[in-house]
Predict the structure.
Amino acid sequence: MDTSGFGAILEFLRGKGVTKIVVNGATGEYCLTTAAELARMLAICRETLPGATVLCSIGAAGLPGCLELGRIAIDHGARALLLPMPHFFPYAQGDLHAFCAAVAARLDAPILLYNLPRFTTPLTLETVRGLIESVPNIRGIKDSSGTLALLGGLGAGACRIVGDDSVLVAALDAGVCDGVVSGVAGVLPELTTFLFDRRNSAAYPRAVELLNELIRHLAALPVPWGLKLIAECRGVTPAWFSQPLSAARTAQANQFRAWFPSWWAQWESAVGGCAIKP
């Protein structure tokens, strides 16, 4: 775990006015996080951003791991929990319902389901509705499917959080977005805040174009390597990877480093003067 890099990211976000943090999500590579590392991350978060609202993901391969991480999150002051489905093995919807209900029954905290179909069994709308209606502390969903099928199918009584930056604008247009948990916002909070709060700005169409260009470049790299490279390019912290980089990936990373400054200059020119702090 790169504790100094994590602290640097938090300091950077604090400087941008961010007061709400998600710890240990997919961008945070939760599948690699140990219980001890999660406790340390939450302690660093509390020290660096005292008073911040923390949503903590408790993803694991099975029920015992989720419960252990959930108790650590609650003990360290997380306001709510983000619950991905168990990863690696495929499951039926009934299995997912039973899993989520069991986690919620054992952890005394508000829970958002986390639909992450690129890495876990996807949730169906029927399963999500059933859980929200029958389990009191399951309040809504963070949907990272890249579509609006789930968010559009839930009523306003559920908390509907966009988890895929590529559909943020569409979700706002459709009125099915109560908030966004954005990997991009971890290194480019100015962009996400602008898209969420400045929809009437003359610069908005250009901001959407720049977001789409950014997403295309990020998609060429494993999650979340491109975001790590942006943090490095912005002088926040050197990029650190859990995997050794092949020669091809090293070349690709260098190409990204060369590309990003010109993209950022376009953002500053077209949108920066209109932007507001988060």
